Amino acid sequence: MRHFCLAFAMVASLGLAQDGPYKVLKTVKVGGDGGFDYVTADSEGRKLYVGRSGNPGRVNVFNLDTLEPAGEVANTMRVHGATASPRSGHGFASSSPVVMFDTKTFATIKTIDVKGNPDGYLYDSFNDRVLILSHSKPNITAIDAKDGSIVGTIDDLGSGGDRVSAVEQAVTDGKGTIYADLEDQHAIAVIDAKTLTVKTRYDLAGKGDGCAGLAIDAKNGILFAACRTPNVMVILSAKDGKILDTLPLAGSSDGAAFNPKTMEAFSSHGNGTLSIIKENSPTSFVVEETLKTMSGGKTLTLDTKTDHILIIAAEYAAPAPPPPDAPPPSAGQKGGRGGGRGQMVPGSFSIVVVGK
Questions:
Q1: What pTM was computed for the model?
Q2: Fewest CB atoms within 10 A around its CB: which of 17, 83, 215, 247?
Q3: Is 88 exposed, middle or buried (0-12, 13-18, 19+ CB in 10 A)?
């Protein structure tokens, strides 16, 4: 009981609201083998894309309304996730090579050889392009969603010299500007979507570092950068980078989203929590709620039709005990000596649906 009270007091001291309008509506155990990284809702096409690792990998596709299996995009090597262009009806798996597929049949149209290590991704409706993000050069590869041609790359996101930026998540304002958070450089790169050139960088030094989630209120020009060092949401102006506020998050973020209908930003965490931040006005922000979801639920997506947040997670066995002679963990290392997360429980992969 004492441990519970202490934990609750620590949460309360951070100003994290416990009660709020959101709840877990349902948790659907869909199973399947392989690890997972990103999840993407195609709100117009009513599909949900989930990248699953394996040999070969695949993209599982679900009906966004029922979460029943709808098919899969096969043979996607080293896949992280997928997105789709409503305009062209083409989907793209962030894999190596990138797989371009038909969003109705899920059949492969072509494979696209890209350099670097495809990881995150962004569909930009401004010019119907898909951006493939990488932690090695090129950091960004832009693909024409109509025909799958590579229209350009960005090797340097303003880091200078030979340093390679660890770009994690990117967002678009829909008007020709892209923002990308650089996990290793406490910065956000501002990119011209037409020319694929870096216009400037916003430095977050002193406020947040290790930012892995990024969301945007495009109407009011506000960015929400979900950072890990410390666990905070840095809120800044998309126009000039001015810091507007910094609010605590309930865990280590690996994804963020913003709903312009409800004026709320969301950050999902591997410890099974979801932080919800309310934008009361373009200058006033508050942690509205901290919701318990499912352990391991570190990435999320927003269904703009239903306003539901969908999070992917799984159950994990306890880690194997370390050998007696294992060295103690270094500062910041997870788990005990040689410890960490155990193996994923077979068949436990789940989709968590959050809403009001």
A1: 0.90
A2: 17
A3: middle
